[in-house]
Give the backbone structure.
Amino acid sequence: RFLAKHLGVSRNTVLEALDQLLAEGYLEARRGAGTFIAVDVLASTYAEIHQSQVTGGNADITNNAAQDDDAIITPKLSSRGQRLAASKLAQHQDEARPLAFQPGLSALDLFPWKLWMRLANQAAKLIAQPNQHQFMGYGNSAGLLELRQALAEHLRVARGVRCQPEDIVITTGTQQAVDLTARLLLDVGDPVWVENPGYTSGHEVLRALGAELIPGKVDAEGLELPTTPVRLAYLTPSHQYPLGVTMSLGRRLAFLEAAKAVNMWLFEDDYDSEFRYAGKPLAALQSLDAYRKRVIYAGTLSKVLYPGLRLGYMVLPPILSSAFVSARGLADRSPPLLAQKTLALFITGGHFTRHIRKMRHVYDKRRQALINALEQIPELSRLVSDTGLQLSVRLSEGWDDRALSVQLTDAGIEARPLSDYAHAPLGFGGLNLGYAAVDESTIVQAAETMKKVVEAYANTL
């Protein structure tokens, strides 16, 4: 009562504080005697006082000594930790709404949320049944069998991928697929052939884990063949990111031959191949690997459905499946089972295919709206692309794409410079423009703003 009155708080507040101190071991209650500071806490306090007296009793000296001691014993990051911490990847912040022209983002407002919620409730009810207790455990490190079966069937039909459910490992996305591949197949210093420009996020994972990145030129047929022996080649053959080139059949076959000749792995990132707007869908590079020994195929649901789902998959050569499942288990056991079960229902119910078909039509209209708008900005030369959720433009000679990108950002437009995707000088500047996340009217308005910014930038040169 005295303490409550002294502090001007209620008795309950004091009692709760005392209970918390008792629970954490700072106080101890002695029956018939009262509540006291715990003996261990007293002993520790006396030891600190004694140490202070030994060092001279001077507070400043003690503090300086403590600071020097901290400097000596503070743990340092490992070499790998320093590379991870030095990653150049931007920490994307959640936006109140998608920006034009943010690349790599799907139309979140058109996702069938009501259907998804109904399937999620159905999945929860199935999991809660008495005979479904396996869903309450840690799960299979490879992923839910039902989901792997559904993905295997979809990939065989839609992408020509040669696989069985046991070849598939469910991941949290392409980033984890790259991480697992690097940890299992690469030693520090191993050379990796990457596209220049290329997918920065995947490349940064490889770099952080100690790989030596060797940039290869991207021409009209896709990534050129390695000019030096490498351990792994990172490819986006169906839709090169960010230039949009589709790798020719001849170049694909040449990569498979090279992989066999020099014992090289091929990592195929098939990140948005579902959205092709001209001609027949091309089969995956993995489908050409007749003996299934060279290609690691990775896909993501972030582009097809929504990024927050955090589910992707790998299709592995049979000789690698067991090792990757073990590594996947060490990483984080398995993805959340409820999300996997919901996605399995979404695919097996035919909703996945219907959603892709619907969004392909929507994205094609948005893509055409952007193409038409870009025709009004002669300083921007569009690079050919008939696949995906974004396209790139090339700037006039001598323009600084980073400087222009900053000015566009100030005007409320996200247009990432191609220089940010490069590991070696490209010889030209450009911008990567996403069109999937915003509707046609927003695209037109943003393009008008972009035209003004581009013209103002041109006048400063």
In short: The first strand starts at residue 27 and ends at 30. The chain has a mean pLDDT of 88.
